[in-house]
Amino acid sequence: MRSGMHLAHLSLTNFRNFVRLEKDFPIGPTLLVGANAQGKTSLLEAIHYLSYATSPHTTNDRQLINFLTLQETTPVTRIVAEVRRQDRTFEAVQDRPFDVAQDRPQRIEIRLILEPAGVVGEQRLRKEVLLNGIKRRVRDLAGLFNAVMFLPQDMYVIEGPPSERRRTLNDALTQADPTYADALSEYGKVLSQRNALLKQLQERNGDPDELSFWDEQLCEYAATLVRARALALSELENLAEPIHQDLTRGMETLRLKYLPSYHPATYSEGQIGLPMDTAVDLTSIGRDAIRSGMSTTLERTRQEEIARGMTLIGPHRDDFSFLANAIDLRLYGSRGQNRTAMLSLKLAEVDWLQQRTGEIPVLLLDEVLSELDTERREDLLTRVNAAQQAILTAADLGMFHQDFCKKATMWKIVGGTVSDLGI
Ligand SMILES: Nc1ncnc2c1ncn2[C@@H]1O[C@H](COP(=O)(O)OP(=O)(O)OP(=O)(O)O)[C@@H](O)[C@H]1O
Ligand SMILES: [Mg+2]
Protein backbone atom coordinates (compact mmCIF):
# COMPACT_ATOMS: atom_id res chain seq x y z
CA MET A 1 0.00 0.00 0.00
CA ARG A 2 1.28 3.44 -0.93
CA SER A 3 1.13 5.51 2.20
CA GLY A 4 2.06 9.05 2.75
CA MET A 5 1.18 12.37 4.15
CA HIS A 6 0.29 15.36 2.11
CA LEU A 7 -0.22 19.05 2.45
CA ALA A 8 -3.94 19.67 2.05
CA HIS A 9 -4.06 23.40 2.64
CA LEU A 10 -1.54 26.17 3.05
CA SER A 11 -2.10 29.64 4.32
CA LEU A 12 0.65 32.25 4.33
CA THR A 13 0.73 35.71 5.83
CA ASN A 14 3.67 38.00 5.11
CA PHE A 15 5.97 35.18 4.11
CA ARG A 16 8.51 36.74 1.71
CA ASN A 17 6.50 38.20 -1.21
CA PHE A 18 3.30 36.38 -0.18
CA VAL A 19 1.30 39.01 1.66
CA ARG A 20 -1.59 36.58 1.85
CA LEU A 21 -2.08 33.12 0.36
CA GLU A 22 -4.90 30.63 0.90
CA LYS A 23 -4.57 27.54 -1.21
CA ASP A 24 -5.80 23.94 -1.24
CA PHE A 25 -3.14 21.53 -2.45
CA PRO A 26 -4.06 18.36 -4.36
CA ILE A 27 -2.48 14.92 -4.11
CA GLY A 28 -0.14 13.98 -6.99
CA PRO A 29 2.08 16.32 -8.99
CA THR A 30 1.48 20.06 -9.15
CA LEU A 31 3.38 22.23 -11.56
CA LEU A 32 3.83 25.86 -10.64
CA VAL A 33 4.79 28.02 -13.59
CA GLY A 34 5.97 31.61 -13.28
CA ALA A 35 8.50 34.12 -14.50
CA ASN A 36 11.50 35.16 -12.41
CA ALA A 37 10.92 36.78 -9.03
CA GLN A 38 7.23 35.83 -8.76
CA GLY A 39 7.56 33.55 -5.70
CA LYS A 40 8.19 30.00 -6.96
CA THR A 41 11.15 29.25 -4.72
CA SER A 42 9.53 31.08 -1.81
CA LEU A 43 6.42 28.91 -1.97
CA LEU A 44 8.48 25.71 -1.85
CA GLU A 45 10.56 27.19 0.94
CA ALA A 46 7.40 27.90 2.96
CA ILE A 47 6.26 24.30 2.54
CA HIS A 48 9.66 22.94 3.48
CA TYR A 49 9.64 25.22 6.53
CA LEU A 50 6.77 23.16 7.96
CA SER A 51 9.04 20.17 8.43
CA TYR A 52 11.36 21.70 11.03
CA ALA A 53 11.06 25.49 10.92
CA THR A 54 14.33 25.84 9.03
CA SER A 55 14.85 27.18 5.55
CA PRO A 56 16.72 24.87 3.17
CA HIS A 57 18.93 27.69 1.94
CA THR A 58 18.60 30.82 4.07
CA THR A 59 20.53 31.11 7.31
CA ASN A 60 18.65 34.03 8.80
CA ASP A 61 14.94 33.50 9.48
CA ARG A 62 14.39 37.27 9.46
CA GLN A 63 14.71 37.18 5.68
CA LEU A 64 11.47 35.21 5.52
CA ILE A 65 9.43 38.07 6.91
CA ASN A 66 7.85 40.23 4.21
CA PHE A 67 10.10 43.28 4.14
CA LEU A 68 7.20 45.67 3.60
CA THR A 69 5.98 44.86 7.12
CA LEU A 70 9.34 45.57 8.76
CA GLN A 71 8.40 49.15 9.64
CA GLU A 72 5.57 47.87 11.85
CA THR A 73 6.28 47.65 15.58
CA THR A 74 5.76 43.89 15.66
CA PRO A 75 5.86 42.26 12.21
CA VAL A 76 4.38 38.74 12.17
CA THR A 77 4.79 36.03 9.55
CA ARG A 78 2.44 33.06 9.64
CA ILE A 79 2.66 29.70 7.94
CA VAL A 80 -0.38 27.57 8.63
CA ALA A 81 -0.91 24.14 7.12
CA GLU A 82 -3.41 21.38 7.21
CA VAL A 83 -1.64 18.07 6.81
CA ARG A 84 -3.54 14.88 6.03
CA ARG A 85 -2.31 11.33 6.21
CA GLN A 86 -3.70 8.16 4.81
CA ASP A 87 -4.21 5.18 7.05
CA ARG A 88 -1.21 2.99 7.10
CA THR A 89 -0.62 -0.68 7.64
CA PHE A 90 0.64 -1.69 11.06
CA GLU A 91 3.94 -2.96 9.60
CA ALA A 92 4.70 0.48 8.31
CA VAL A 93 4.53 2.09 11.72
CA GLN A 94 5.63 -0.58 14.15
CA ASP A 95 9.25 0.53 14.38
CA ARG A 96 8.12 4.03 15.28
CA PRO A 97 6.70 3.79 18.76
CA PHE A 98 5.71 7.46 19.02
CA ASP A 99 3.76 7.30 15.83
CA VAL A 100 0.06 6.63 15.94
CA ALA A 101 -1.20 8.09 12.70
CA GLN A 102 -4.71 8.94 13.82
CA ASP A 103 -3.54 10.82 16.89
CA ARG A 104 -1.09 13.09 15.15
CA PRO A 105 -1.73 16.78 14.77
CA GLN A 106 -3.29 17.80 11.54
CA ARG A 107 -2.80 21.53 11.80
CA ILE A 108 0.68 23.00 11.93
CA GLU A 109 1.18 26.69 12.54
CA ILE A 110 4.51 28.48 12.66
CA ARG A 111 4.74 32.15 13.56
CA LEU A 112 7.78 34.36 13.20
CA ILE A 113 7.42 37.42 15.36
CA LEU A 114 9.87 40.27 15.26
CA GLU A 115 9.38 42.04 18.55
CA PRO A 116 11.09 45.00 20.16
CA ALA A 117 14.06 43.93 22.28
CA GLY A 118 15.26 45.71 25.42
CA VAL A 119 17.43 48.19 23.57
CA VAL A 120 15.63 50.91 21.61
CA GLY A 121 15.57 50.19 17.88
CA GLU A 122 16.61 46.57 18.27
CA GLN A 123 14.34 43.65 17.47
CA ARG A 124 14.36 40.01 18.48
CA LEU A 125 12.92 37.18 16.40
CA ARG A 126 10.62 34.78 18.23
CA LYS A 127 9.45 31.53 16.71
CA GLU A 128 6.17 30.05 17.84
CA VAL A 129 4.87 26.62 16.94
CA LEU A 130 1.25 25.59 17.42
CA LEU A 131 0.08 22.06 16.76
CA ASN A 132 -3.69 21.76 16.48
CA GLY A 133 -3.88 25.14 18.13
CA ILE A 134 -1.73 24.27 21.15
CA LYS A 135 1.63 25.93 21.73
CA ARG A 136 4.54 23.52 21.43
CA ARG A 137 8.30 23.57 21.07
CA VAL A 138 9.94 23.81 17.64
CA ARG A 139 11.37 20.34 18.09
CA ASP A 140 7.86 18.90 18.42
CA LEU A 141 7.54 19.47 14.68
CA ALA A 142 9.91 16.57 14.08
CA GLY A 143 8.31 13.92 11.90
CA LEU A 144 4.91 15.58 11.49
CA PHE A 145 5.41 16.75 7.93
CA ASN A 146 8.27 15.41 5.88
CA ALA A 147 9.56 16.95 2.68
CA VAL A 148 12.67 16.77 0.54
CA MET A 149 13.55 19.84 -1.46
CA PHE A 150 15.63 19.82 -4.63
CA LEU A 151 17.27 23.14 -5.46
CA PRO A 152 19.26 24.19 -8.53
CA GLN A 153 22.10 25.25 -6.24
CA ASP A 154 22.21 21.89 -4.45
CA MET A 155 25.78 21.20 -5.57
CA TYR A 156 26.83 23.99 -3.25
CA VAL A 157 26.30 21.42 -0.48
CA ILE A 158 29.27 19.53 -1.88
CA GLU A 159 31.35 22.59 -2.78
CA GLY A 160 30.52 24.88 0.12
CA PRO A 161 31.59 24.95 3.77
CA PRO A 162 31.00 22.02 6.18
CA SER A 163 28.00 23.87 7.68
CA GLU A 164 26.11 23.22 4.41
CA ARG A 165 26.69 19.49 4.75
CA ARG A 166 25.70 19.52 8.42
CA ARG A 167 22.52 21.35 7.44
CA THR A 168 21.73 18.59 4.92
CA LEU A 169 22.30 15.88 7.52
CA ASN A 170 20.29 17.70 10.17
CA ASP A 171 17.48 18.32 7.74
CA ALA A 172 17.12 14.59 7.05
CA LEU A 173 17.65 13.41 10.62
CA THR A 174 15.36 15.88 12.37
CA GLN A 175 12.53 14.75 10.09
CA ALA A 176 13.16 11.06 10.65
CA ASP A 177 14.12 10.91 14.29
CA PRO A 178 12.55 12.97 17.10
CA THR A 179 15.28 11.78 19.50
CA TYR A 180 17.84 13.35 17.19
CA ALA A 181 15.83 16.58 17.05
CA ASP A 182 15.79 16.70 20.86
CA ALA A 183 19.52 16.00 21.14
CA LEU A 184 20.35 18.60 18.49
CA SER A 185 18.35 21.26 20.25
CA GLU A 186 19.87 20.44 23.68
CA TYR A 187 23.38 20.19 22.24
CA GLY A 188 23.03 23.70 20.81
CA LYS A 189 22.04 25.10 24.19
CA VAL A 190 24.80 23.30 26.11
CA LEU A 191 27.37 24.35 23.52
CA SER A 192 26.57 28.04 23.86
CA GLN A 193 26.65 27.82 27.68
CA ARG A 194 29.94 25.98 27.58
CA ASN A 195 31.42 28.45 25.11
CA ALA A 196 30.34 31.34 27.32
CA LEU A 197 32.10 29.74 30.28
CA LEU A 198 35.25 29.02 28.23
CA LYS A 199 35.30 32.66 27.20
CA GLN A 200 35.06 33.72 30.84
CA LEU A 201 37.87 31.34 31.79
CA GLN A 202 39.97 32.69 28.95
CA GLU A 203 39.53 36.14 30.48
CA ARG A 204 40.54 34.62 33.82
CA ASN A 205 37.32 34.83 35.73
CA GLY A 206 35.33 31.76 36.54
CA ASP A 207 35.86 28.35 38.06
CA PRO A 208 37.30 25.71 35.67
CA ASP A 209 35.56 22.96 37.66
CA GLU A 210 32.24 24.29 36.42
CA LEU A 211 33.23 22.94 33.01
CA SER A 212 32.73 19.36 34.19
CA PHE A 213 28.98 19.91 34.43
CA TRP A 214 28.76 21.14 30.83
CA ASP A 215 31.24 18.51 29.59
CA GLU A 216 29.02 15.73 30.81
CA GLN A 217 25.95 17.11 29.08
CA LEU A 218 27.84 17.97 25.92
CA CYS A 219 29.13 14.38 25.61
CA GLU A 220 25.71 12.95 26.35
CA TYR A 221 24.02 14.76 23.46
CA ALA A 222 27.07 14.55 21.19
CA ALA A 223 27.03 10.75 21.49
CA THR A 224 23.42 10.63 20.29
CA LEU A 225 24.21 12.93 17.36
CA VAL A 226 27.43 11.22 16.28
CA ARG A 227 25.91 7.76 16.43
CA ALA A 228 22.78 8.83 14.53
CA ARG A 229 24.88 10.59 11.87
CA ALA A 230 27.16 7.60 11.40
CA LEU A 231 24.19 5.27 10.94
CA ALA A 232 22.27 7.66 8.70
CA LEU A 233 25.24 8.28 6.43
CA SER A 234 25.88 4.59 6.05
CA GLU A 235 22.21 3.94 5.25
CA LEU A 236 22.07 6.89 2.85
CA GLU A 237 25.22 5.65 1.15
CA ASN A 238 23.68 2.22 0.61
CA LEU A 239 20.59 3.77 -0.93
CA ALA A 240 22.47 6.38 -2.97
CA GLU A 241 24.96 3.93 -4.44
CA PRO A 242 22.59 2.08 -6.86
CA ILE A 243 20.81 5.34 -7.73
CA HIS A 244 24.12 6.97 -8.59
CA GLN A 245 25.20 3.95 -10.65
CA ASP A 246 21.98 4.37 -12.54
CA LEU A 247 22.27 8.10 -13.07
CA THR A 248 25.87 7.81 -14.25
CA ARG A 249 25.12 4.73 -16.33
CA GLY A 250 27.54 2.65 -14.34
CA MET A 251 30.43 5.11 -14.65
CA GLU A 252 30.69 6.15 -11.01
CA THR A 253 30.42 4.63 -7.58
CA LEU A 254 29.41 7.06 -4.87
CA ARG A 255 30.54 6.88 -1.26
CA LEU A 256 29.63 9.15 1.63
CA LYS A 257 32.33 9.35 4.24
CA TYR A 258 31.57 10.68 7.68
CA LEU A 259 34.29 12.95 9.05
CA PRO A 260 33.34 13.48 12.68
CA SER A 261 35.23 16.19 14.47
CA TYR A 262 35.54 13.86 17.43
CA HIS A 263 36.37 10.41 16.07
CA PRO A 264 35.98 7.68 18.70
CA ALA A 265 38.45 5.30 17.08
CA THR A 266 41.15 7.94 17.00
CA TYR A 267 40.98 8.50 20.71
CA SER A 268 39.84 5.21 22.20
CA GLU A 269 41.93 3.50 24.88
CA GLY A 270 45.27 2.17 23.64
CA GLN A 271 44.76 3.49 20.14
CA ILE A 272 45.61 7.12 20.61
CA GLY A 273 46.92 8.70 17.47
CA LEU A 274 45.40 6.37 14.91
CA PRO A 275 45.17 8.28 11.64
CA MET A 276 41.75 9.77 10.89
CA ASP A 277 41.03 7.73 7.80
CA THR A 278 41.67 4.45 9.53
CA ALA A 279 39.19 1.84 8.33
CA VAL A 280 37.12 1.70 11.49
CA ASP A 281 33.43 1.21 10.95
CA LEU A 282 31.91 4.04 12.93
CA THR A 283 28.51 2.44 12.94
CA SER A 284 29.86 -0.36 15.12
CA ILE A 285 30.87 2.00 17.93
CA GLY A 286 28.16 2.33 20.57
CA ARG A 287 26.77 5.46 22.20
CA ASP A 288 28.48 4.81 25.55
CA ALA A 289 31.90 4.41 23.96
CA ILE A 290 31.45 7.66 22.05
CA ARG A 291 30.33 9.50 25.18
CA SER A 292 33.10 8.32 27.48
CA GLY A 293 35.75 8.66 24.78
CA MET A 294 34.76 12.23 24.08
CA SER A 295 34.67 13.02 27.77
CA THR A 296 38.28 11.82 28.20
CA THR A 297 39.31 13.84 25.17
CA LEU A 298 37.69 17.00 26.54
CA GLU A 299 39.72 16.65 29.73
CA ARG A 300 42.84 16.34 27.67
CA THR A 301 42.07 19.36 25.49
CA ARG A 302 40.74 21.53 28.32
CA GLN A 303 43.73 23.89 28.50
CA GLU A 304 43.68 24.48 24.78
CA GLU A 305 39.92 25.13 24.82
CA ILE A 306 40.31 27.67 27.62
CA ALA A 307 43.15 29.36 25.74
CA ARG A 308 40.99 29.60 22.60
CA GLY A 309 37.79 30.38 24.52
CA MET A 310 35.62 27.89 22.61
CA THR A 311 34.63 24.26 22.19
CA LEU A 312 37.00 22.67 19.69
CA ILE A 313 35.55 19.21 19.17
CA GLY A 314 32.04 17.89 18.74
CA PRO A 315 29.19 17.50 16.23
CA HIS A 316 29.05 21.27 15.60
CA ARG A 317 32.29 20.77 13.65
CA ASP A 318 31.43 17.54 11.86
CA ASP A 319 31.71 17.08 8.13
CA PHE A 320 31.28 14.39 5.52
CA SER A 321 32.66 13.97 2.05
CA PHE A 322 31.36 12.70 -1.28
CA LEU A 323 33.68 10.27 -3.00
CA ALA A 324 33.02 9.41 -6.64
CA ASN A 325 35.27 6.57 -7.74
CA ALA A 326 37.28 7.35 -4.58
CA ILE A 327 37.82 10.97 -5.65
CA ASP A 328 36.74 13.75 -3.29
CA LEU A 329 34.12 15.74 -5.20
CA ARG A 330 34.54 18.82 -3.04
CA LEU A 331 38.06 19.20 -4.39
CA TYR A 332 37.87 17.67 -7.84
CA GLY A 333 34.23 17.30 -8.89
CA SER A 334 32.94 19.02 -12.01
CA ARG A 335 29.69 21.00 -11.82
CA GLY A 336 27.68 18.32 -13.57
CA GLN A 337 29.31 15.57 -11.55
CA ASN A 338 28.44 17.34 -8.30
CA ARG A 339 24.91 18.08 -9.43
CA THR A 340 24.37 14.39 -10.17
CA ALA A 341 25.91 13.30 -6.85
CA MET A 342 23.55 15.64 -4.97
CA LEU A 343 20.61 14.35 -6.96
CA SER A 344 21.60 10.81 -5.95
CA LEU A 345 21.83 11.86 -2.32
CA LYS A 346 18.46 13.64 -2.35
CA LEU A 347 16.75 10.69 -4.04
CA ALA A 348 18.34 8.41 -1.47
CA GLU A 349 17.00 10.70 1.24
CA VAL A 350 13.48 10.26 -0.14
CA ASP A 351 13.80 6.47 0.09
CA TRP A 352 15.50 6.71 3.46
CA LEU A 353 12.75 8.88 4.96
CA GLN A 354 10.20 6.45 3.64
CA GLN A 355 12.03 3.49 5.20
CA ARG A 356 12.45 5.26 8.50
CA THR A 357 8.96 6.75 8.79
CA GLY A 358 6.78 4.51 6.64
CA GLU A 359 5.66 7.52 4.64
CA ILE A 360 6.78 8.93 1.33
CA PRO A 361 7.88 12.52 1.93
CA VAL A 362 6.48 15.36 -0.14
CA LEU A 363 8.83 16.23 -3.00
CA LEU A 364 9.64 19.87 -3.69
CA LEU A 365 11.54 20.42 -6.93
CA ASP A 366 12.67 23.92 -7.68
CA GLU A 367 13.50 24.23 -11.37
CA VAL A 368 15.77 21.22 -11.18
CA LEU A 369 14.46 19.57 -14.31
CA SER A 370 15.87 22.27 -16.55
CA GLU A 371 19.36 21.39 -15.35
CA LEU A 372 19.14 17.73 -16.34
CA ASP A 373 19.53 15.86 -19.60
CA THR A 374 16.52 14.01 -21.03
CA GLU A 375 17.33 10.63 -19.54
CA ARG A 376 17.87 11.91 -16.00
CA ARG A 377 14.80 14.08 -16.31
CA GLU A 378 12.68 11.03 -17.16
CA ASP A 379 14.19 9.20 -14.20
CA LEU A 380 13.31 12.02 -11.86
CA LEU A 381 9.78 12.34 -13.25
CA THR A 382 9.23 8.64 -12.57
CA ARG A 383 10.02 9.38 -8.93
CA VAL A 384 7.73 12.37 -8.96
CA ASN A 385 4.90 10.20 -10.23
CA ALA A 386 5.50 7.63 -7.51
CA ALA A 387 5.30 10.21 -4.74
CA GLN A 388 2.16 10.93 -2.80
CA GLN A 389 2.55 14.61 -3.53
CA ALA A 390 5.10 16.58 -5.50
CA ILE A 391 5.30 20.28 -6.23
CA LEU A 392 7.50 21.38 -9.11
CA THR A 393 8.35 24.84 -10.32
CA ALA A 394 9.37 25.98 -13.77
CA ALA A 395 9.82 29.24 -15.64
CA ASP A 396 8.14 27.71 -18.71
CA LEU A 397 6.48 24.49 -19.78
CA GLY A 398 9.06 23.72 -22.46
CA MET A 399 10.61 20.62 -20.99
CA PHE A 400 7.41 19.00 -19.74
CA HIS A 401 5.82 16.27 -21.78
CA GLN A 402 2.15 16.72 -22.62
CA ASP A 403 1.33 13.47 -20.83
CA PHE A 404 2.83 14.84 -17.64
CA CYS A 405 0.99 18.15 -17.95
CA LYS A 406 -2.30 16.31 -18.38
CA LYS A 407 -1.78 14.38 -15.15
CA ALA A 408 -0.46 17.29 -13.14
CA THR A 409 -2.34 20.16 -11.51
CA MET A 410 -1.21 23.27 -13.35
CA TRP A 411 -0.84 26.59 -11.57
CA LYS A 412 0.67 29.90 -12.47
CA ILE A 413 2.19 32.39 -10.08
CA VAL A 414 2.38 36.15 -10.55
CA GLY A 415 3.61 38.48 -7.82
CA GLY A 416 2.91 36.07 -4.98
CA THR A 417 -0.58 35.18 -6.24
CA VAL A 418 -1.30 31.63 -7.34
CA SER A 419 -4.08 30.74 -9.79
CA ASP A 420 -5.02 27.99 -12.24
CA LEU A 421 -2.95 27.99 -15.39
CA GLY A 422 -5.84 27.15 -17.70
CA ILE A 423 -4.14 25.71 -20.76
N1 LIG B 1 11.38 39.00 2.89
C1 LIG B 1 10.86 39.32 1.70
N2 LIG B 1 9.84 40.20 1.62
C2 LIG B 1 9.30 40.54 0.43
N3 LIG B 1 9.73 40.06 -0.75
C3 LIG B 1 10.76 39.20 -0.71
C4 LIG B 1 11.36 38.77 0.49
N4 LIG B 1 12.35 37.90 0.21
C5 LIG B 1 12.36 37.78 -1.12
N5 LIG B 1 11.41 38.56 -1.68
C6 LIG B 1 11.09 38.74 -3.11
O1 LIG B 1 10.18 37.78 -3.52
C7 LIG B 1 10.27 37.62 -4.92
C8 LIG B 1 10.12 36.15 -5.26
O2 LIG B 1 11.32 35.47 -4.96
P1 LIG B 1 11.50 33.95 -5.36
O3 LIG B 1 12.89 33.58 -5.09
O4 LIG B 1 10.45 33.14 -4.73
O5 LIG B 1 11.23 34.04 -6.93
P2 LIG B 1 11.20 32.91 -8.02
O6 LIG B 1 9.83 32.91 -8.63
O7 LIG B 1 11.70 31.64 -7.49
O8 LIG B 1 12.19 33.51 -9.10
P3 LIG B 1 13.36 32.83 -10.00
O9 LIG B 1 12.67 32.29 -11.21
O10 LIG B 1 14.23 33.98 -10.33
O11 LIG B 1 14.03 31.79 -9.18
C9 LIG B 1 11.57 38.27 -5.33
O12 LIG B 1 11.31 39.48 -6.01
C10 LIG B 1 12.26 38.56 -4.03
O13 LIG B 1 13.05 39.71 -4.05
MG1 LIG C 1 13.47 30.58 -7.79
Keywords:
single chain; about 425 residues; alpha/beta; Rossmann fold; Glutathione S-transferase Yfyf (Class Pi), Chain A, domain 2; 6-stranded antiparallel sheet; 6-stranded mixed sheet; 12 helices; 15 strands; about 40% helix; binds adenosine-5'-triphosphate; binds magnesium ion
CATH class membership of the largest domain: Alpha Beta
**Contiguous runs where pLDDT drops below 50 for at least 5 residues:** 89-100, 268-276
CATH fold annotation of the largest domain: Rossmann fold
Gross CATH architecture of the largest domain: 3-Layer(aba) Sandwich
| Secondary-structure content class | alpha/beta
Strand order of the largest sheet: 2-1-4-5-6-7
Percent of residues in beta strands = 15-25%
Straight-line N-to-C gap: 33 Å
Bound molecules: adenosine-5'-triphosphate, magnesium ion
Largest sheet: 6 strands, antiparallel
CATH superfamily of the largest domain: P-loop containing nucleotide triphosphate hydrolases
**Count of folded domains:** 2
What sort of overall outline do the alpha carbons produce when their principal axes are compared?
globular
- Helix content range: 40-55%
Order of helices and strands: EEEHEHEEEEHHHHEHHEEHHEHEHEE
Query: pLDDT average, as an integer?
Result: 90
Please give the count of helices. Answer: 12
Global Rg:
23 Å
* DSSP strand tally: 15
